[in-house]
Amino acid sequence: MRLHNFIVDYRLAHQVRSDMDELERNLFDDDCRRFLATEMNVGSFGVVGGENEVRRDADGNISRGGRPRIRDSELTKMGKRIRDALRDKIRSGGHVRPPTNWFRNNNRFMGS
Description:
Elements: H1 2-13, H2 19-38, H3 70-92, H4 102-106
């Protein structure tokens, strides 16, 4: 709802008008009024979801953003060093990825 209202208000403020804009605004307002009139027992509505994607700090509190902590940066660098060392060891041993998918070739239930 907020994005739609922002777009419509922007168009009105910058005199970007058309018959379709007015029609869209009227339809949207009618839909909102109808929804609010029929869903009076709804405690809250709007955009929901994404709660599990919130970054948390070491204590489990919600992180307020900003630069990553030094410890996070150090662990990232260490992980990249380990990844690169493993990659170099695999390459130096002459190992390569198999040209076919072993599971697909040896599983009688998958595409034949």
